Amino acid sequence: MDRLSEQVTASKTVFNGRLIDLHVDTVTLPNGEQAQREIVQHPGAVAMIPLLDDGRVVMVRQFRLAANKITLEIPAGTLHGGEDPAEAAARELQEEIGFRPGKLERLGGHYTAPGYTTEYIHLYLATGLQSSRLDLDEDEFLEIEMLPLDEALRRVDNGEFEDGKTMIGLMLAARRQAAGK
């Protein structure tokens, strides 16, 4: 064991859900002592920055119960057991905004809160968008909003977005666009 790693010595599942599982793990710390960690197991997700040819970003407005508010976000969705993230990105674009991507570029990804969850979000820039059928899940209610990328970035700078994946995705997409020009 290195100087910082923790070793799981026991794990107990305390909740199994449709989207997440919760484990309480006993770990041995680098100093030999033991501690408990509560870990939310999540299958991972994708989030896309759909950029139209005219420079507008297609975003979704929806109610988020955990935040108890309506948010404006980039489209995103959960990976289905072993699903390829790029395939999930294309599927989610179809389901949430009714577009098929001509091109998907991986921008990177991030852990949402590595202190307690395994959730990792893969980020993609989607360009060459082609209009298609909107295929919302039966429990999804959202509105589509299109913003110029510069306006979306201004809103990031002004603190108008509170969703991490949206802020990170917009900033990475803008950097990619600037580097490509």
Explain what you see.
- Helix 2 crosses helix 3 (164-180).
- This protein has three helices and twelve strands.
- The termini are far apart.
- The strands form four sheets. It has a four-stranded mixed beta sheet with strand order 7-4-10-9. The chain has a three-stranded antiparallel beta sheet with strand order 1-2-3, with no helix packed on it. A three-stranded antiparallel beta sheet has the order 6-5-12.
- With 181 residues, it is an alpha+beta fold.
- It folds into two domains: 7-41; 45-180, Nucleoside Triphosphate Pyrophosphohydrolase (Alpha-Beta Complex).
TL;DR of this structure?
The protein is an alpha+beta fold and about 180 residues long.
* Order of H and E elements: EEEEEEEHEEEEEHH
- Count of the domains: 2
Approximately what portion of the residues adopt beta-strand conformation? Answer: 35-45%
Tally the helices: what do you get? 3
**How many strands, what sense, and barrel or not for the largest sheet?**
4 strands, mixed
Q: Spatial order of the strands in the main sheet?
A: 7-4-10-9
Low-confidence segments, given as residue ranges, are: none
Distance between the termini: 47 Å
Coarse shape: elongated
